[in-house]
Amino acid sequence: MQNARRAGLACALTLLATPILAQDCAPSKWGAADEIGSANLVTPENTLKAAGLIRQGKSMPLGIVIDSETPAFAPRSLNLQVVQPNQQGGQRLDGFGYPGVYNDDILQTWVGIGSQIDGLGHLGEGGMYYNCNDEKDFAAITGLTRLGVHAIPPLVGRAVIVDMAAHAGKDHLDAGEHFGSAEIQAAAEAQGVTFREGDIILFHTGWTEAMLEADPTAWVSGEPGINNEGTAWVAGLNPMAVGGDTWGLEPVPAAEGDGTFYGHVILLQQNGIYILETMNTGPLLAEGVNEFFFVLGQARIRGTVQMIINPVALY
Q1: Residue 252 has what DSSP assignment?
Q2: Is the pLDDT of residue 5 over 90?
Q3: For residue range 121-132, what is the model confidence (pLDDT) as tens digits?
Q4: What is the per-residue pLDDT across 29-49, written as a single tens digit (0 to 9) for each?
């Protein structure tokens, strides 16, 4: 956990060291008023094509189960309480016409825990976020007034998994191990994976399967992932989202010369491409599936920066 704190500090120092000026910001290719970035690639045509990938009629969750013990980037935490309101001492509820009882739950949590989507207001550079949005103009303590995750339409489309662990001949990549465009292209070619505009591109490293339960402290203290060069190359494919089976997508510690988590800036701030973290890709690969129909409808809490999610793979 201490290593995760150091990683966060390194990220902050990197961003402060290379400020971006407002006049250097270029409007989005989807227009100066756009707030949803690559979600513009969700079209009826693309959705119908992707739906054709449902061949076996099966489904599988991509989200992991989380609880108060799930490690998370500090200081994030989760606390759940189950209560029985007005039922203390065996009381029963009046007005139901029967001796009714019920359970309710109270959740106190950061929403950047476990499987999650990073919205376009999550990371920027020098105070600037996607589509030239200045933090002073939209980042209120009560919620984002622009770029909120609640405004993202359902993300549906073709998804592919590139197994970077298999390409390296390992069960899992190690913390700090990274890959770029050459490795991605070689792995994709060997595994029969092709890329198309509007894809959800997921990278499998084996990190979560190998480390989350076995050594949760090590899991959250480091991770393998895609380096900045690889991230820029993938962004050039115009995907809808990029994700992986790790908690932060990029390697920790970062590749030499890369800013910590700067891939987030490349995807979110510079290209308006969503990030999907801690995607449970292993079970799909175990069934021989690396291409499928992806469906995500996230909770729509106004003004959120990110959100806990459980996308569904249909195949």
Answers
A1: B
A2: no
A3: 999 999 999 999
A4: 999 999 999 999 999 999 999
Other beta carbons within 10 angstroms of residue 216's beta carbon come to 15
Kindly give, in sequence order, each residue whose CB lies less than 8 Å from that of residue 28, ignoring residues fewer than 6 positions away.
34, 37, 130, 131, 272
Measured at the CA of 27, the angle between CA 23 and CA 32, to 5 degrees, comes to: 120
Q: In the chain, what are the domain boundaries? A: 2-75+112-314, 77-110
Q: Which CATH architecture has domain 2-75+112-314?
A: 3-Layer(bba) Sandwich (3.50)
What would the two tokens of residue 315 be? 């195949």
Each residue's pLDDT tens digit, 40-78: 999 999 999 999 999 999 999 999 999 999 999 999 999
Written as six digits, the tokens of 179 are 């890959």
- The answer for residues whose C-beta is within 8 angstroms of residue 39's C-beta and 6 or more apart is 152, 153, 155, 240, 274
Question: What length is written for the chain?
Answer: 315
Reading across the β-sheet that carries 200-204, which strands appear in turn?
59-61, 312-314, 291-296, 155-163, 200-204, 241-244, 274-277, 116-118, 306-308
The Cα-based distances of 152 to 45, 47, 136, 146, 293 in angstroms read 19, 16, 22, 11, 18
For all residues of the chain together, what is the average pLDDT? 93
pLDDT value of position 99: 84
200 φ, ψ (degrees, to nearest 5): -100, 115
Tokens of 98: 């029967």
Reply yes or no on whether the pLDDT at 16 is more than 80.
no
What residues have CB less than 8 Å from 209, skipping those under 6 apart?
A: 172, 245, 282
Say what the pTM is: 0.91
